[in-house]
Specification:
Radius of gyration: 24 Å
Strand order of the largest sheet: 2-1-3-12-6
Structural class: alpha/beta
Low-confidence stretches: 1-23
Number of helices: 19
Length: about 400
């Protein structure tokens, strides 16, 4: 081969490499959590619209089920094969920040952009004065109740306290229709959270002011005794520890549960799957001193520090967090608005179900932003399962508090 031909071939090869690098440089990979059957189609529509508006940038979404998302991210990060962006549970963020894999976004965020958000939902992603994530999904919890069962049992209004809830559950049980008064989940995601509703109403917190576990406090014990007594009295569905959140929600949709606590997305499911069900949404019951609490949840979108296409990735984030895109996603999935302008839309203002959730936000607690939180949450869930199966509440919580404190001291 002549030198000229070799040079031409080399240049052509280099051009191809440059083209390939350029094509790669314009690609934004995103790991997306699967919320429902609507998640994938929403992001497919985003891909088409965004790519049409941004020639030269291609987007690749990978939709991953929630129960394997953290494991997938951990594996990908370790191998260095993670995407540019990902949806995460905000409670995981502190670990990603400590591992130095999350990119601070402050260099991209303008005052106008920051002004789009409701502060309550943006603040959990801010650590040490730096913004590491944007709230892609936000939710709280409230109590759903079956209006038809209430009417049959002669219950005039939803219970304001746990004592009233127990009385109402007894009335529903006494109907003899096979319906259960109170739906109580006992396995998988948020089993610990279902316990916190009662715990917060007893004046206890997940963490004491000194940073130790609140599981060893008198209020935590009263909450555990409350749930155990309801199980023992047959006021809940049988086999509590065999039922996860979706199982209890399905019982409610079938008209078999009088009351349960869950998220706004159940309203959307009822409209789609049980449109004739008559139900209402009310505040989570208060404790003896009037204390109550709901669980505030945000999931965040983060940018990874090792992304080679940060500017393109930010363009996509900016697009996803416009009012129009927020409304499409939020309304499709049944979440609460994180965008101020979106929150003013008739869809939210005139939606009685969502209004009940929004009214509870001043009482919202978020998962503590601490290292090892997932381990502490699992310790709590394990302890509650043992208690629900007949274990001694005092001994179970004492043991759980000791285990949690060992994690918290690390």
């Amino acid at each position: 081969m002549s030198l000229a031909k070799w040079t031409v071939g080399l240049m052509a090869g280099m051009s191809m490499l440059a083209f390939a690098a350029q094509a790669n440089a314009g690609e934004v990979r995103v790991t997306v959590a699967e919320y429902s059957a609507k998640t994938g189609p929403y992001f497919e529509a985003v891909k088409k619209e965004f790519e049409a508006k941004n020639p030269g940038i291609t987007v690749k979404f990978e939709v991953v089920p929630w129960d394997v998302l953290l494991q997938k991210l951990t594996t990908d990060i370790t191998a260095g094969t993670n995407a540019d962006l990902s949806i995460i549970g905000t409670r995981w963020l502190i670990d990603f920040v400590q591992q130095d894999v999350a990119e601070p976004l402050d260099g991209y965020i303008t005052p106008e952009f920051k002004g789009r958000f409701i502060d309550t939902f943006l603040s959990p992603s801010i650590m040490s004065g730096k913004t590491y994530g944007l709230p892609i999904a936000a939710s709280a919890r409230a109590m759903y109740y079956n209006k038809e069962l209430f009417e049959k049992a002669g219950i005039a209004k939803p219970p304001a306290t746990w004592t009233e809830l127990q009385d109402d559950a007894r009335k529903i049980k006494a109907l003899g229709t096979g319906a259960f008064g109170f739906g109580l989940q006992g396995k998988e995601i948020e089993t610990d959270v279902y316990y916190y509703y009662a715990m917060w109403s007893q004046g206890a917190e997940i963490l004491n002011k000194d940073g130790t576990s609140g599981l060893g406090t008198p209020g935590a014990l009263e909450a555990a005794k409350l749930y155990k007594s309801m199980i023992d009295e047959g006021l809940t569905e049988p086999g509590v520890t065999s039922n996860n959140r979706e199982d209890v929600q399905n019982l409610f949709k079938q008209g078999k549960v009088g009351m349960m606590i869950t998220a706004p997305f159940l309203s959307n499911q009822i409209k789609d799957e049980a449109p004739t069900l008559k139900y209402g949404v009310a505040a989570i019951p208060a404790g003896p001193t009037g204390a109550r609490g709901t669980y505030g949840v945000t999931d965040s979108m983060i940018m990874f520090k090792n992304s080679k296409n940060k500017d393109e990735a930010w363009k996509l984030m900016d697009f996803l967090f416009t009012t129009e895109q927020r409304a499409k996603f939020t309304q499709g999935e049944g979440f609460l608005p994180v965008n101020k302008e979106e929150a003013k839309m008739d869809y939210y203002v005139n939606n009685a179900d969502l209004a009940a959730f929004t009214a509870l936000l001043p009482d919202a607690r978020f998962a503590p932003v601490i290292p090892g939180w997932e381990e502490v949450a699992q310790i709590t869930s394990d302890a509650m399962q043992k208690i629900y199966l007949g274990g001694d509440p005092e001994a179970g919580l004492k043991d759980a508090a000791a285990k949690a404190n060992a994690v918290l001291k690390k």
